[in-house]
Prior knowledge:
410 residues; Molybdenum Cofactor Biosythetic Enzyme, Chain A; Alpha-Beta Plaits; 5-stranded mixed sheet; 40% helix; 25% strand; elongated
Amino acid sequence: MEAKIITIGDELLIGQVIDSNSAWLGAELEAINIRVTEIRSIQDTEDEIIKHLSELTGKTDVIILTGGLGPTKDDVTKKALANFLGVELEFNASILEQLTALFKRINIEVKESHKTQAYVPAGCAILSNKMGTAQGMWMEHNGSIIISMPGVPYEMKYIMENGGLEKLAALNNGNRIFHKTIMTAGWGETMIEEKILPIIDALPPHIKVAYLPGLGNVRIRVSSKSENDDSELTATVDQICNSLGNIVYGFDNIRLEEAIGAILLEQKLTLGTAESCTGGNVARMITSIAGSSAYYKGSIVSYANEIKTDLLGVQSKTLEDHGAVSKETVTEMVQGALRKLDVDVAIATSGIAGPGGGTPEKPVGTIWIAVGSADKVITHKLNLTKNRNKNITYTSIAALNMLRKFLVGQ
């Protein structure tokens, strides 16, 4: 089955509100084997709504509308639906009872404007919304299912999770699409595809692999259509992971810093950071994980050379001979962080993030990273672009990935 989404509201078109509903709907519908093939954002006028319904009805299986169901005059979706379907808006007593109970619970008086929420297009089925005043509506016309829901994300999700998705799935003969996302760091999507292409070429048509690249990482989404279970999906994921080896750090959108935290907890190790060019961004990523205080002790942001010497113990001669952006300096930064912060492992970064500050010998984008413990320090050089923000983000991810591989002995 195919679906098309129509989001209604001027606030979407002028950028005041971001359409998060369509992304959520796309993922949920895909899981029940309904593919979203188009998303439209339109003005909240009756003519516009009718125009787009006329274009889509009879040509697609499911049409989902979000927005325009409030009690004010600018909310015209119900009126447009009634006119399009050639029916009247009729009073629904059960909706008013639900609204009255809701308002009583929150100590608000039911006004005449609120009572308009109890009027719906004649013949529609109600999809209950206990999170707000606008109910979901299910209609069928000219071979298409039309579902209309409020634009408030948590209300829309409630309606779909409490009847809407189940009702749609029942129409699709119980077929499901199982998904698994493989999380990787360190390789680009081209390298990954070259490595696993023999596996992909041998897959049956109902198993699909997609690449979702990010800065410093790639998510590999494996999908399998099945009436029964996800055994084929699991076997495919295992094949891909075995082929890719240590670039795989987890599954299902786990963040790299979260995976590292789990390793540190398991190994009962503490972590500290010494940052120059990343300016505390590595620390920010680590501490964004709840419970990180169990393993992360702190950071020294040694942006200036005197902080590198005074707080981290980097030798002045090292800075004079090799410069702040060097293998030697980040090595001493890691060693200083281990001592000063009294931790088991540490990360250090130093580089020229840009857009200025480079030299012919060390152009913008030259970055050194070190990771180490009392027994061992490893270093790595990056040659990045002149985009400051991207350089900081990529360096932070690369540093965390170095730490992950260091911890598991790779």
